[in-house]
Amino acid sequence: MNDNIITVKNLVKKFGHFVANDHLNFEVRKSEIFGFLGANGAGKTTAIRILCGLSYPTSGEVKVGGFDIYNQRNQIKRNIGYMSQKFSLYDDLTVYENIRFYAGIYGLGRKEITTKAAMLIKRLDLEVARDKLIRDIPQGWKQKLAFSVAIIHDPKIVFLDEPTGGVDPITRRQFWNLIYEAARDGITVFVTTHYMDEAEYCDRVTIMVDGKIAALDTPSALKKTYDAANMNDVFLKLARAKPVA
Amino acid sequence: MKRFTGFVIKEFYHIFRDYRTLLILFGIPAVQLLLFGYVITNEIKDARIAIYDASKDEVTRKISEKILSSGYFILEKNLNNYSQISQTFREGKTKLVIVFGSKFAEKLQQEGKAELQILGDASDPNTANILVNYATGIINNYLISIDIEQMPMRIIPEVRMQYNPELKGVFMFVPGIMAMLLMLISALMTSLSITREKELGTMELLLVSPLRPIQIIIGKVIPYVVLAFIDSCVILAMGNFVFGVPVQGNIILLLAECLLYITMALSLGILISSITSSQQVAMTISLMALMLPTILLSGFIFPVENMPVILQGLCYIMPPKYFITIIKDIMLKGNGFIYVWKDTVILAMFTVVFMMMSIKKFKIRLA
């Protein structure tokens, strides 16, 4: 129990009559890479938005970092990082200004910001682009930068909502290296994706089908259970298993 | 607080790096004021007139001289008979024809009345009206000056136009432009800057961060308060130095009212951005729903009293109407707070209502 950093019990989210999340139950353990898989519209983004405090559930019990999402939002906000599929950085600010801004809104001090920004730029090999506007740098750099900015305040958990959308396989691979690094530093990573090959990189994965959790286990266990060669097959078997109306 | 400062600084970066924003902020006020001040003016100078003088005596010559030396009129041509008049109007240059009846001076002497006709080109009714008034005024003045000994009793009205003796159009336009531009800058720019964050997806990041929603909103709004305030000072200064529009009343009261109006417009902007998440829609709403009523229904150009009752009712729910009344009172009449407090309270109420509505909307969006 103490090892669980996120606990979700009977989470339901309805939009009108549409049930986006149907009684979700799961726990995320400390410092693991937790994958949230599913087709578009399966309810991944809805769930991640609830965990981040961007939207309220219709019912259910959710704790993030030990804090309740109904009453302790502010404590949660200080302990999480978030990166959306849009790599949200400001186009008209430079790389350095973006880092400084995001570090600033998380309350880092001036000295801390300077050292962190320098470290981060060096680690990402962005020295040449330090004073370039975001709109002038390649997509892959933006993605790495967006991720680093999301964890600049050393959160306990980072939520990544389809962080690899629209980038090439090599950049995706490099990006996963960053995720591993973060996990090694003790940050719990909660990642949604619809790339099944990425599921193999996760410690445990949840597969969502039509708002419900269809399976939750380690990738190897899932492959064994469903007698599949890779995660893609697992997913196809699960998705096809749904009742046909 | 430190978080908040960083946020506001970032907003200023956005503004100063976008030349279009800067242009809207500082180019438009100057251009608008110059345009309205110089181009759209109610005063008429050097209007072309024709004179048909059937009498050609001392009196008619004097009257013609007076008219032509007034500065309002220049002579296009002298006509020789009545039938030339319609031809002259058709040519289009002549705006006014003055016809002196025959034996003008004689009749005036003997019978005490003579015939004079003024014809205006009413294809442009406003101009015709103004020109006819000018001409009538000049003729009356002349008659008063020669009659004064002969007539035992006379009422001579002495007309003075209070608060704007020269009837300058720009006196009207400065308050109007203030109302329009502050609305444009405050409502349009804030709604754009908030919806832009939504489009970029950065709004989500801000909402996930420890910044409170209210801090985000205030942080987005502060730069525009500052800039809109600078703009109102620029408009006032330009009006004063370039066009001689006075500020009779208390300048601090005037600026405070501007600030109130800016706040009202900003809360409208926030409300707009809480309804939509696209910059396009925000822009359309701001322009269509805010600018047009501000220009047409605020008493800026068209007097509210002359509108149909339904439109008058609409005018009363237009915040700019109250702002224009307030600043006209303060600038031109020099009125103090006791004269404008009612309109001020109404503006403040608008502000509160818009604020509450947008806070409510914002919360619903989060759920």
Architecture overview:
The complex is a heterodimer of chains A (245) and B (367). Chain A has helices spanning 44-52, 73-79, 95-105, 110-123, 139-150, 169-184, 196-199, 219-225, 231-240; strands at 4-15, 18-29, 33-38, 59-64, 67-68, 80-83, 157-161, 188-193, 204-209, 212-217. With 245 residues, chain A is α/β, with parallel strands linked by helices. Chain A has a domain at 4-89 and 156-240: 3-Layer(aba) Sandwich (Rossmann fold), CATH 3.40.50.300. In chain A, helix 6 (169-184) links the parallel strand 7 and strand 8 (188-193). Chain A starts with a strand and ends in a 5-residue tail after the last helix. Chain B has 367 residues and is of the alpha/beta class. The two termini of chain B are 26 Å apart. In chain B, helix 2 (19-39) packs antiparallel against helix 7, helix 10 runs antiparallel to helix 13 and helix 13 (319-333) runs antiparallel to helix 14 (337-366). The mean pLDDT of chain B is 84. Chain B has a four-stranded mixed sheet, with helices on both faces. Classes of the chains: A alpha/beta (245), B alpha/beta (367). Chain A binds chain B through residues 52-56, 74, 77-78, 80-82, 84-86, 88-93, 97, 100-102, 104-107, 109, 150, and chain B through 2-3, 6-7, 10, 13-14, 17-18, 200-202, 204-211, 366-367.
Q: Helix tally of chain B?
A: 14
Low-confidence runs of at least 5 consecutive residues of chain A? none
Strand-pairing-aware structural class of chain A: alpha/beta
Question: N-to-C SSE series of chain B?
Answer: HHEHEHEHEHHHHHHHHH
Q: What topology, given as strand order, has the largest sheet of chain B?
A: 2-1-3-4
Draw up the topology in text.
The complex is a heterodimer of chains A (245) and B (367).
Chain A: E1 4-15, E2 18-29, E3 33-38, H1 44-52, E4 59-64, E5 67-68, H2 73-79, E6 80-83, H3 95-105, H4 110-123, H5 139-150, E7 157-161, H6 169-184, E8 188-193, H7 196-199, E9 204-209, E10 212-217, H8 219-225, H9 231-240
Parallel strand pairs in A: 3-8, 3-9, 6-7, 7-8
Antiparallel strand pairs in A: 1-2, 1-4, 4-5, 9-10
Helix pairs in contact in A: 3-4, 5-6
Chain B: H1 2-17, H2 19-39, E1 47-53, H3 58-68, E2 73-79, H4 84-91, E3 96-100, H5 104-111, E4 116-120, H6 125-147, H7 170-200, H8 202-208, H9 213-243, H10 251-275, H11 279-296, H12 309-315, H13 319-333, H14 337-366
Parallel strand pairs in B: 1-2, 1-3
Antiparallel strand pairs in B: 3-4
Helix pairs in contact in B: 1-9, 2-7, 2-9, 7-9, 7-10, 7-11, 7-13, 9-10, 10-13, 10-14, 13-14
